[in-house]
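The passage that follows is intended for readers who have already worked through the single-chain material. We present the inputs for a multi-component assembly, then the predicted structure in tokenized form, and finally a short commentary. You are encouraged to pause after the input and sketch how you expect the pieces to fit together before reading on.
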Amino acid sequence: MNTLRLALRLLARDFRAGELRVLIAAIVLAVASVGTVAFFADRVKQGLVLQSNKLLGADLMVSADHPLPASYTDEAKRLGLATSHAIRFNSMVALAHATDANAVLTDVKAVAAGYPLRGTITFASGRQAKRTGGGIPGRGEAWVDTRLADRIGAKVGSSIEVGDATLAVTAIVAREPEVAGLTFAPGPKLLVNLADVPATNLLTPGNRATWRLLVAEREPGELQRFRTFVSSRIARGERVESVRDLRPEVRQTLERAERFLGLAALVAVLLAAAAVALAASRYLRRHVDTAAMLRCFGARGSHTLALFVTQFAVLGLIACAIGLVGALLAQQALAALMSGAFVATLPAPGIEPALVAIATGLLLLFGFALPPLAALAHVTPLRVLRRDLPMPRRSALFAYAAGVVTIGVLVAWQAREAQAALIMLGGVGGVVVASGLVAWLLLTALKRLPVRGLSWRYGLANLRRRPLASSLQIGALALGLTALLLLTVVRGDLLRNWRANLPPDAPNEFLVNVLPDQVDDARTWLHSTLSVDAEFKPMVRGRLVEVNGSALDTARYEDPRARRLAEREFNLSWASEVPPGNRVVKGRYWPLDARGADAGISLEEGIANTLHVKVGDRLTFDAGGLRVTAPVTSLRKVDWDSFRVNFFALFAPGALDRLPTTYVAAFRAPEGNTAWLSGLVKRYPNILAIDVAEILGEIESILDRVARAVQFVFLFTLAAGLVVLQAAIASTQDERRYDAAILRTLGASRRQLTAAQVAEFALLGAVAGLLGAAAATAIGYGLADRVFNVPFAGSPYVWLYGIVGGALAVLIAGTLGTRQTLREAPLRVLRQLA
Amino acid sequence: MPSFLVRAISLSKVVQSGDAPISILDDVSFDVAARESVAIVGASGSGKTTLLGLLAGLDDPTSGDVVLDGVGLASLDQDGRAAMRQRLVGFVFQSFQLLPALTALENVMLPLELAGAANAAQSARDWLARVGLARRTTHYPRQLSGGEQQRVAIARAFAGDPKILMADEPTGNLDAATGVEIAELMFRLNREHGTTLLLVTHDANLAARCERRLSLAAGRLVGDERRAAAHVVADVRHVAAK
Ligand SMILES: Nc1ncnc2c1ncn2[C@@H]1O[C@H](COP(=O)(O)OP(=O)(O)O)[C@@H](O)[C@H]1O
Ligand SMILES: [Mg+2]
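Having made your guess, compare it with the prediction:
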């Protein structure tokens, strides 16, 4: 009790003296950054679980790219389960009877009696406005969602055209049970009656329709029997989904995002660790005398230690509490930035992330601050008499070891994978060490310049005087600045370069699902209406079923992406020549006059690698029950960025003649003119038009949202860099006060003192900014070269923002931290520090 | 009425220690004429450093004023006093107080640069040569011995061509032999440049070489003696003969 009271008193005294500010700031920051990410990820995960039951609209769903066998439904009924059928497909949807109607690519869901088996539909307007309930659209009716209603201007009472059918809008749906709610940017949606589907004439081979059987149990236990039954019979292209395995991609995306944000937060934590270590060493230096005095007065070593541990425990808890409040506020902002990215509504934050954040804070404090302080327990009382005795060395090794172990624990915990953790540590360590090295070289080089003027020489000398500390500060700041520059300036440059790099004649419209007998007329129509010469290419949708004669076992692909690719339908086509933008990299393309399957297959190189297929392998594709087998005779590299129509697998003409074929066309439509689209849809209801600008827009908006979130978390990194700076400034505060006092004695004016400090801080910030800009440019170059495949001309603004921004940031932080040194009477300072 | 270079007018300094105010300097007044050399002596803790600090404007008196070359320090702010020091005062400390980040040369250049002198490097080099450290210009303070550091400090104090040199126990941290060397150097430069000297010391030999001796005891001025001119002349001869 006595210890606690004394500890609190000492703590309060130190706090008033401003000794603890940096320590608290570092821990607050670490707790806030880890907490923000943990809170956010946890809320999204909980949201997913909560929503998924309702989202499926059933307990279990069997879906397939073909009509499901009747045996499934029969078995479900036999087991006493509730069932309902649904079909999902895409269609252009436009208002009927309007001359310049806007046709919009829509996700159509045709449902039957009983839908939804679970969850409810919420109406925005119509028969059951503002109410929720079940039920399905009657025959000839359509329920449009708010997004589609907005896009085509539909109201209750409007008529819309879906394929060949004209339907009456009887309700506007605000929300309905649908997994699409989990995607980044859900498209417009439409609910129709299953019985109306044939009238639309849309279920053609090129339309990727999905047939679904929805199942819900009335008695617990029935579902499992049904699941077992279906699992034993499941055919290719069919899959069973329940809330348990709902949308694995979403979960994966979330986990990846969480890991990435977590690593970003970790960078902040690592920097905070550096700040804590710096602050602790200053604390040690300042309290060695207190400890010696306590020992002089008879305190045992363990008691002295208990005193300091208690102080730090109290301090840590206070800092953690502040950090948590910060995290709660910040995660709310993050949730707003990422709104709707994963789930529509987020549940309240849980308790577990709070524990994670607090644990991080305490780990930092006790891993980095306490071990050096253990030295205080070993201080010899003789120090009271002889000030020049060295600091106890014994525990220095212990302190370093504890720090290293703590970093290891933190990184392993956050990164969850040894490899990611190592890359992370290596990356951060590398940037800091490299920055430090370059900083040191720069400072050395600057020293050789004939520097005129007191302030510059003095500022430079100050940086060189503590090469290690200066390099650490510069490294930490450079890291924070790199992160921010990368996400602001470099990201903008990359996107601009990428867009600028699109060929000016790149197609901006795709037509898919064009039937063979429509091709000639469509081409003529496009030519007369838009005066474009669209090239129509044949396309057959087929699934890879055999490799070298044996059935393809998709389970052999460990990579989930490869497995998904192998299970999906491929777009097959034929061409007598290598298409423009394609390059044969292995094997030989067939001669111009080659015909039939024997000429072989030209496979896209990337997919060949993913599926482990080599030149010479024989592949069998199945399209609607008809099969074609051919050897792979060449591999192609495809320039996907050209936005031309390209195919994974190409055959020679004639090879696919028996198979169901549709055509695709890509062309450049005049900007801003969409009137032609409704004309086309009226003429050919089955054709789907895909607007590239819209797709690009969605990609960009996704990139944008993710980037903003990451940027947000990287703000913590920059803040941590500034705290390291503050810690370094605080740990050199006494030296600065001393220097200022001497300069004052020699007659320096306030302006001269300020100029010297400005020089030092501006130099520090500018060097950090220079390094940050260099790193950001290098990474930008790497991304451009490896990921975006565009030439990269780094913008000069990176350097400008980096150097000027860095100098300003450090200048402000630095002068705020040292302004008191300018005010003190010199003699008092010299007496204090002598 | 003679014109005084340094005037202390009823200087008092009271510091708050705990609850009780302690008076560490109590109503001290004296005048120092130009070119005079004055020793300030007294027991440890008698207030010598405090007095010297007040005379240089390094600290504020509780009451009273210091007039340097006709200007009252009380009327000036920190910058004003710094400007006065730059123009008038060189300072030598007991513990040298060189800037550790700067080389010997750069330390000596400081006052010149602060004053905006044109050829700071050259005159600093000259000054280092005059204190016998021509070959130590690029050394940092930690690479120099105590005596060498104090030489640098003396060069730094004289470099600004001050009218007044204030020294606070300049030999206090040095061994006896080095202390004598340093003292000789200081007196020689003082003589050559006609500087007014205010020297705090408790070394009787040093004090004896000044024309005048002010004695402090418990913060009060208790003695003000002048030596006969003959002694001083003899002393000068003695030094010159060396
Ligand atoms: N800022 C201060 N606070 C409290 N006591 C002080 C302060 N400055 C000086 N003193 C005290 O005033 C007395 C005179 O100090 P000082 O001028 O350094 O004496 P001297 O230089 O003669 O040894 C000493 O007792 C010292 O402890
Ligand atoms: Mg003293």
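Commentary: The two ends of chain A are 37 Å apart (CA to CA). Residues B 48-49 surround magnesium ion (ligand 2) (CB under 6 Å). How closely did your sketch match?
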